[in-house]
Write a structure and sequence with these properties.
TPR-like_helical_dom_sf; Tetratricopeptide repeat-containing protein; mainly alpha; 3 helices; 82% helix; 65 residues
């Protein structure tokens, strides 16, 4: 898989995560956003920090913090 393909996959996981969050399916939101973060870390995407913050927020919501 090329880096560009991985960047697109990461963006897709991020978008899916946000959609699941909007649907109040926080487990699926966390899973997809975590995948986006993982790929972003691996390939050095510039929006990594934003996505890490989003993952923290979803985890906090999901676990009642």
């Amino acid at each position: 898989m090329k880096c560009g393909d991985r960047a697109g996959a990461a963006q897709s996981y991020w978008n899916l995560g946000l959609t699941y969050e909007d649907l109040s399916d926080l487990a699926q939101a966390e899973e997809n956003i975590a995948l986006a973060v993982q790929i972003a870390e691996q390939i050095g995407l510039p929006n990594l920090e934003e996505w890490q913050d989003g993952l923290k927020q979803v985890r906090a919501k999901r676990h009642g913090a």
